[in-house]
Amino acid sequence: MHHSPSGGAGRGTASADGRLVSIGTVLNLLRDEFPEVTISKIRFLETEGLVEPQRTPSGYRKFSAQDVERLGQVLRMQRDHYLPLKVIREHLDALQRGETVPLPAPAQPRDLLDGERGAVPPEQTAVRIGRAELLMAAEAGEAELTEWESYGLLSAASDGAYDAGAIGVAKLIAELGRAGLEPRHLRAIKAAADREAGLVEQLVAPLRRHRNPQTRAHAEATARELAGLSVRLHAALVEAALRVRLH
C-alpha cells in the first residue's frame, strides 16, 4: 500500500483486524492530528478521487485502515507542504504503483489549489490594476464600466484600484452583454455569488481564527475547494434546468 510519513495518532487502528469502519469513526481517528477535519471534507476528498471507500448495499461509506492512512497522508501534505489536491493524488498513486518519487516542492499558501477546478490563479489574488487598464483588458467603455458598478457587478477598492480577477469578471459581463444579457439581468447571479461566498466564509471561519498559522492557511485551501464545488454545482443546476426548459 502507500508509504506513510510518520506522525498522527490512531492511524492504522481503524480496522487492524480487517473490519471496515464508518465515516464518523474515521473522523474521530483523524481529529487527534487534524482537529479542523470535517465529514464534509472527507466526502470532498472522496469526490476528488483521493480516497475510495467501499459502500454497503444501503449506500453507507465503509473505510479500511488503508483508507484512513491515505486520508492522513492527504491532509498532512495539504497542511505541511501546501500541495494542491491534483499533485497529492498523483504522488500517492505513484507510490501505490511502487514507484519511488520525491515529494513535490511546496507551493505558497495562496497557491494551494492553483489548477484545481474553480480555483483563482495566484496572480489574480496579488496583482492590482487601474481603471484604464481594466477598460482596455475588457474592451469596454467608461460608460459600460460605470453601469456595471452601479449594479454592484464590479467595485474598486478605496484607492480606485481593482483586483486582477476583475478582468475576468468584466470580460464575462461584456460577452454576456453581446448575447443580450444586460447588467440588470445579472444582479441575481451576483446576489447568488455573494450568498455562496458568505456561506463559505461562515464554514471556514473557525479555521481562520485558529492560532496555528498552518491551520489558518488551510482555511484558504478549504475555501477554494468549497468555491470550486459551488461553481460546479451551479453549472450543473443551470444545465439541468435548461434541459427541462428546452425539451
Q: What is the N-to-C order of secondary-structure elements (H for helix, E for strand)?
A: HHEEHHHEHHEHHH
Radius of gyration: 22 Å
The name CATH uses for the topology of the largest domain is Multidrug-efflux Transporter Regulator, Chain: A, Domain 2
CATH class of the largest domain equals Mainly Alpha
Number of strands: 4
Overall geometric form = elongated
Oligomer: single chain
Quick overview of this protein structure:
By secondary structure, the protein is mainly α. Helix content is 56%, strand content 3%. Strand 1 (54-55) and strand 2 form a beta hairpin.
List the helices and strands and how they pair.
Layout: H1 23-31, H2 39-47, E1 54-55, E2 61-62, H3 65-81, H4 85-96, H5 123-126, E3 128-129, H6 131-138, H7 142-150, E4 162-163, H8 165-178, H9 187-208, H10 213-246
Keywords: DNA-binding
Domain HTH merR-type: 37-94
Protein name: DNA-binding transcriptional MerR regulator
Structural overview:
There is one protein chain. The protein is mainly α. The chain has 2 domains: 85 residues, Multidrug-efflux Transporter Regulator, Chain: A, Domain 2; 124 residues, Multidrug-efflux Transporter Regulator, Chain: A, Domain 2. 56% of the residues lie in helices and 3% in strands. The chain contains 10 helices and 4 strands. β1 and β2 form a beta hairpin. α3 crosses α4, α6 packs across α8 and α9 packs antiparallel against α10. 23% of the residues are buried. One of its GO terms (molecular function) is DNA binding.
